[in-house]
Design goal:
This protein has about 1250 residues and is α+β, with helices and mostly antiparallel strands. The longest helix is centred in the last third of the chain and has 28 residues, at about 1110-1140.
Amino acid sequence: MDSDSENEFWAAESASQGTRFTRLARVESKQRSTYARPGDDSGSDSSEDPSAAVPGSFKGKQPVRYHSASYGDCESTAGSDEDDDAVVEEVLLDTESDSSQVPSKNVSFAFSGGYSTGNSSMTSLGSSTSYDVVTGRKRVLEYEDTMSTPIAPGLSTSSKQQKLSKQAVHSSRPDSSSAPPTSYSKTRNQSNGEALDVPTEPRTPHRPHPITPSGSPTPYRGKVETPVINTVQSLMNAIELTTSPAPPDGVHIIAHSANVQRLFDKYNVAWGAQYELARGVSRGWWTWDDITSSYLKDLGSVSKDAVLRMWQKPPRNPPVGAVVYADAQLWAELDREELAICEGQLRGLGLKGAWQNTEDWYGGKVQQVARVEEMDGKMQLVLAPMEMRKSCRFARFLGSRRMLQVSIPQELRTQRGGDLTQFFLQKFLFCGRIFVAFGAKDGKVFLMETNEDYERGGRTPGDERRMSLEDFVAWHNPMDRNGDQAVSKWATRFDLGFSISVPALVFGGREMFNTEDQYVDKTAQKPPAEHIYTDGCGYMNAAALSLIAKRMGYESMPTAVQGRIAGAKGLWMLHPRDRSLQKEPKIWIRKSQRKIQLDHDNLHLAHRTFDLLAPPRVTHPSRLSRLTILNLSHNKVPTSVFVDLMRSALDEEVRALTQWTHPQDMQLLWKTVDRIGRVTGSRIQQFALGASRALGLSGRIREDDMPWDEPSDPLQELLDITGGDTLSEEDYAALIAELESTDAAPQRLRDRFSGEPLTLHGVVLDLLQAGFHPLQSRLLYDKIKTIINKAIEDVVRDFHVTIPLSAEAFIVPDPHGVLKENEIHFKSSKDLKPPLEDPHPKMLLEEVLIYRNPCRLPSDIQKVTAVCHEDLSEYVDVVVLPTTGPCSFASMLAGGDYDGDVCVCIYDPHIVKKFRNLPPTKQLDNFIVDNFQDQGKIEQVAAVAAEMSSITGDPDRRRKKLQGALLSDITLPPVGAYSMFHENAAYSHGYDAPETIRNAFMFNTILDSRKSGLRVQDEVFRRDKKRYDRRRPLCLQGSGNADPISNVADLPRPQSLGRFILDELMEAGKEMRDTYLARYDQLSPVFDMLGNRDPHLRRPYEAALPFMENPLFQRDLTAIKDHIKKHIEMWQKLTRDSKPSPHRTPSRTPARKWRGAVGPSTPAERQRGWKDLTRSFADGPVFAADSPLALADVEALKASWAYHEKPNFAWKVAFQALCRLKASSHWPVAMTGQFADTVTIPPAAVRVFERNRLGMA
């Protein structure tokens, strides 16, 4: 885009988005005509002499389509926009680049040398300035590093990598002497055979010499013939077709129509509207034939407006209960990002200031979602509504619309892993665009849009910035630089780009340093991870941490942050010496942190951006789990200590839930329920849009969850916080299935028709704040009893015992080397102990226990001494571990490291005093050989690259070979099975028996198998399953997970082992439960035979009764009565169908990990049935325009009438309406839902109310 044209497009900041899209289309249309005009052969046959039409550097034949109406309002002499038969011409050009991509002649003045650059973009490796985009100024103070070297040209690589790269250059390097002096790096696009001109980023300021274009493709990127999907057929379709032919082999259609796609492109229909129309076809709501030219031409190019127009008048009315329109905020964000993609300045990566009226904007926040379904034994992808709840590096780089997130049911991953892999090796056709799979994580497969098209009517602005799969892989994880890794480990490195993160700070190349790890044996050539004292933890200077704190709005500078940068991951702590806030921000990266080798002399802006995952966060108090209790008991902590802790925890919880007699007790009860259910906190997290961990609002899920070093999906984290503890197994599975497949996350976790919160604790909060009292409302009384019962079950069955004197935080290695072996330093920014009982409430200065979840080996918990050292006084909210001893101290804690691991510290003297330390448990001899498949079968990246290089003339085979490596871990390893096997072995053989130890190591090894590539031998798994997959005792089942009654044998336990600790605790817990529930029942008032009907809720119904015989009102009131009776019958049927069948076999897997398929009579369908009921009740009855009830509060009347007929039914379909009726009798205050869901009772008010309760006010 020349400077005049660019100014034409971007000059008017006040122009509408639609106008700016039109300007961009006009500019790009003019640019295309500069290189080749349809019908202008310039005196020669273009098919014979392509050099006459394009620059001489373009080579190779490729079809390029020109469409007179492809860009909306583009001027054309061939016809008008109203012409349905737009002229389409095909010109065969000799080109080595994307035919629609025109090199820019703009000059970049970012650095001292004037380099000719291309228009950089989200997906092209484009130029970008490297000054500090946070402060907008360049700092001049220098820092002389004394402990490391800056990242420099020719970063050292292994000899194997050097050899691999050398062979590649020798075998495939073209004659570099003929390369023109340009800033474009020509890289071969082998996934579709095109060569892609990719503008490279200028060198960082400290290397002012010009960039030399590389003429060397990566080793696996040899010459392959350019594939064009069904070229002849595409040419025919571009001219005129009324029906769409079948796609080529190996292409799976998500949603596509040749005719409609040409109309999409002709009228420049906004991508959001295209997606929603395609989703309707995907769901079977309408067909492509229903989408006509007259329907599309007025939708427009701005998603925010186009989607609204589309749903105001859809092609056909969707079925009852369909999610038809997401929040307008999502579509506005999609438009914002679309403009950023078209601008081509890498704005989506963030840290470039305000954009389109949004401060400090960054992209990648929108998710396009699909799910795998089986239809007649075949897999297919079904589109779900877009979502906006997280952002990751890949989405910011590619653009949200260039990625598709696909959810996979768990049983498909476990039972049909091979079929899944083959399914995702296909190309996927979606609205004329080709998507391919490029990674898998957390039960999802991710597809990216490539630069291939099929049956398009012309390209739209931004299309020229797409890239091929191989170019993307070379950008993120180049095979030539990482060839000495196992394929499985190499594939997991894509997790760095999928991590949910926030762009926090850009570093210049001069401010990025390599620094050595500290080792047990400095002379070792390749020490194991447990011999690296600093494994996973680098440094940042105070200036960098301060800038991150300012950007994120922290109250103080963090002493460590977890994140990703370039090819590195882990934790970065405060530099031990560089503490000035006035210097340039700097970062030191250790070898143990670097997971991907990149060209560090030419780092892309995305690679120099620090992606923040989380700041340090102390969680106090912590709580025990089943596994922790087993370990502590084995290490001599008496059973009586656990019983006393259980009783103390339950006494405090039940007392807080059953004090109802004082004036402010309802406010204190509200606060208690909110704390137990974490309701307000989880609602606030929804507003964070995936940044809750980066903002310090949430931490890692604790206890028995797997210790992944990646943050969980925010929806899953939200449901684990609010839903998993309060929903039944079926309801939880239904909610997960619904939210991940057929619906977006409901606003504020409520039913969007009745307003009822989806969690038990949320319901109780709403009832309390509406003015209900448990002694006057049977519903509220029963709900509180359920909360008490669940709190008891959480302690008695799940052994989640809170320890007041405990806390958890990130662990970091000692930066000064002042701690002795078995010493730690832990200083918190908040009180760890009662300030009136301890002179140092924020520090630990005693013997403590430290461990990392889940602990399965006898030595996974260690007793250490917490000390205070002056040199470590500034390291707050982290646990500092020593860098001495025979191994890394973190490795002694369940094989941990310092890349973001969280450890628990227990400083309760009753537990610590009795605990005995054990030496590290050693892995059994020949463990890997005896239990896992031959390591010689683990494929290496170099071998994949070599095989790809040998493939010529078959780009699909080459692509599938690459994808096979990327999707190597799509199947589900038996982690959950061996977790159960280990617990069962501990029950049957004892905690330290050889078989128990073996199963613990099996669990740990399988947990790491995504990286190691190790696979359990089939015979070993069958043997272990036969031996340990037995009916478990109640103490190992957990709440809500009873084993089925079947012919499976009970798990044996020899009498010689004595009583099992968990059996003893469960027996004591049952006695406590019976006592507490009996006390609660004594609080119950005598409810009358009518169920204690609330007069405030009956008032509108009673007021309407006299009008039933009035002819003016009779018809409408009768309609309301019939409407209610009809829906009561629907409710009664759903209630019957929802009751569990006596023949139903409960799941033997934990409820939180269960995922059910969506099919007939599934929990998800029953959940949708309840939603259909509430929607239908809210929608009717329909009155005439002149009805006398038109101005009445019909919603309140319906709720009151339903309450009179069936109170339980009324609460299901009109929850919020009933709450408003109750609140109206207690001097209500008007408040919107967003305010109500973020309001809480402050600690000061709690102290005042408690003083009043004690009569001290």
